[in-house]
Amino acid sequence: MFNVETIRKDFPILQRQVNGKPLVYFDNAATSQTPQRVIDAIVDYYSNYNANIHRGVHSLSQEATDKYEEARLKIQKHFNAKKSHEIIMTSGTTHGINLVASGFTSLLKKGDEVIVSALEHHSNIVPWQMLCERSGAVLKVIPMNDEGELVMSAYDDLLSEKTKLVFVNHISNALGTINPIESIIKKAHAVGAAVLVDGAQACPHIKADVQALDVDFYVVSAHKMCGPTGVGMLYGKEEWLSKLPPYQGGGEMIAEVSFEKTTYAGLPHKFEAGTPNICGGIAFGAAIDYMNNIGFKKIDAYEHELLEYATKRLLEIEGLKIYGTSKHKTSVVSFNLNGIHPYDVGTLLDKMGVAVRTGHHCAQPIMDYFKIPGTIRASFAFYNTKAEIDVLVEGVKKAKMMLS
Ligand code: PMP
């Protein structure tokens, strides 16, 4: 049974007040909150076995190494990677994307084409633009429509034997649209192109199966799925990770070093230079355990209820427009009040204890499409309630009255 009141007790922060009002946290797409189990994993690490990993013979180092590698196995199992060395520990989605974009520099030549979508976060645009500058490859864009969906017929037209790489997000952070990545991947593979899927917004809602998707790269951040900041994972098919050169040089990623020649370690260490976020990695594993204990099917069903309720209630407000109206979307509502700047609404909502995000959400091309400076974005997690949505709706009504 899914009992939200029991679940809420797992999150100490949900008990606090903000500006004298109970916190209503609707900025989950920016970062999720942390359950006690994950906080405990962090405290346990620093209290009991803080040590550097992979190179110590002493007990603490062994213990930390075992726990860290255990976390990698949990991540492997969760995303159903075939091999644990296909999981590269990163500092987050941005790091994972930059690692792949950097690696492709030597694999692309002038005139090759790479395809991005109009629905991307800046971190899945800028590293590829930098790659194009380095390699002479050309960036093509899958356009979007008024519902905030990708125009798949245009994607078909963009694909050709020149296409080497396609990078799209699984779910848009600004609008919540779930993209048809299965079809995007199949079509890219049909012309011999590799696909990177940015799963930053999908990981809190969907249990992605990288083998079933047949995706070449999949990247996430732990902090989007109840884990800590500064840690994430890059999944890459072994054949691709073997082809890509190392991203950073340093300790941990080498086999032998001499001034004449250095050879690199095998996977995954080739991509893991330096001391990693050991505690973060272990806590990431604890977050995956926590979410799986609740169950992604239950999470998805409950969050859809929240999405439907919030959409219906917000649309009762005259002059309120929702951006991103696809039937395939997750629990994100991006909206504006006619003639009122989103920032002003966000500031007033904060006074009422309601945390929403305002602005372009690092997705300026989407805002340009709608010809707006930004939106107010309320993003719901499985620990939110309909009663909290009522507080948001009343707050938006009040803000409208004060700002009109
Ligand atoms: N892609 C998407 C879709 C995101 O929502 C985010 C985080 N807002 C990122 C990438 C970047 O994630 P991080 O800042 O954790 O690297």
Automatic annotation (TrEMBL):
Gene3D superfamilies: Aspartate Aminotransferase, domain 1, Type I PLP-dependent aspartate aminotransferase-like (Major domain). CDD domains: SufS_like. Pfam families: Aminotran_5. Keywords: Pyridoxal phosphate, Transferase. It catalyses: (sulfur carrier)-H + L-cysteine = (sulfur carrier)-SH + L-alanine. One of its GO terms (biological process) is cysteine metabolic process. The keyword Metal-binding does not apply. Its cofactor is pyridoxal 5'-phosphate. Its EC number is 2.8.1.7. GO terms for molecular function: cysteine desulfurase activity; pyridoxal phosphate binding. Residues 24-392 form the Aminotransferase class V domain. Catalyzes the removal of elemental sulfur and selenium atoms from L-cysteine, L-cystine, L-selenocysteine, and L-selenocystine to produce L-alanine. Belongs to the class-V pyridoxal-phosphate-dependent aminotransferase family. Csd subfamily. This is Cysteine desulfurase. It comes from Gelidibacter gilvus.
